[in-house]
Specification:
Elements: E1 4-6, H1 18-25, E2 35-37, E3 45-48, E4 51-55, E5 60-61, E6 64-65, E7 70-74, E8 78-81, H2 87-97, E9 105-108, E10 113-116, H3 141-155, E11 159-161, H4 164-172, H5 197-202, E12 241-247, E13 270-273, E14 290-292, E15 301-302, E16 305-308
Parallel strand pairs: 1-2, 12-15
Antiparallel strand pairs: 2-3, 3-8, 4-7, 5-6, 8-16, 9-10, 11-16, 12-13, 13-14
Length: 310
Amino acid sequence: MNNTLYGLKACGTLLASTALLAACAASPEYRPGQTFLDCADCPDMVVVPSGTFVMGFDGGEPERYEGPVRQLDIARAFAAGRTEVTVAQYRDFVNATGYVAAVGCYAWDGKVARMLEEANWQDPGYGRELLDQEPAVCLDWTDTKAYTDWLSARTGESYRLLSEAEWEYAADAGGAAIYPWGDDPDAACSYANVFDLDAADAIEGSPLEPVNCRDGHASIAPVGSYPPNQFGLQDMVGNIWEWTQDCYVMPYPAGPLDGSPVSVENCDRRSVKGGSWVTSIERQRPTFRGRDPEDRVSLVFGFRVARDLD
């Protein structure tokens, strides 16, 4: 399967030969960029290497400071979902557990903001049927945690949300430009589903300024529609905002500096990252920090999973 590692859990059930016993006894050696699955319908995971990077930006919008800038050391490799969790994957979880996710979804369509009282992840308000490979949206932070807890129990591995530091490190993928693709915002359409001329044509009168290009999608796009970054991850920027594990604290606290999430008592807001198809390009920078209550349910909020490799 090329560089895809699949079926590690078979070591517990398919010990059919001496060779397989020996292979199962050895710990898997994950390589940066390697992809693997822990089950046939689990998220496709990509190994993100350890490394050092500079996080943050000494600036930002009023009351949305993105600093202070500091160096972080991601001491251990981890795995991240190649894309956001899809509708089909979240449906598997709901069908298996009977979990009831939040109802009532906040919709900002680039022109007006409104609450869709009956909307949920199964019917976000698109006015059409969902596609299995679209990212699951209209999920609050608790809904995402319920999924990662289930995935951990199902696979016996440690699944979770990315920390804000891990997310920014994974989105930058070793780059030092303003955006993952470089410093030119109008080059975005080859790399991400952002608010572009296609979206502007579909939403007349939007106060958002589109980038001067067309990415082929006027609204939400199926996951994996754009090329992977240097780490092999797709859709880190654009399409939908992604929940992270961190409590939002401004400015960044002095620590931790190892990529661990920021945790405080009485956390009232969580960090969200990456922007969406209906977000101004300035907020598509990896350093930009969204901040929303755990119970916020939005048409452009979803998530991707992480997994520890220890």
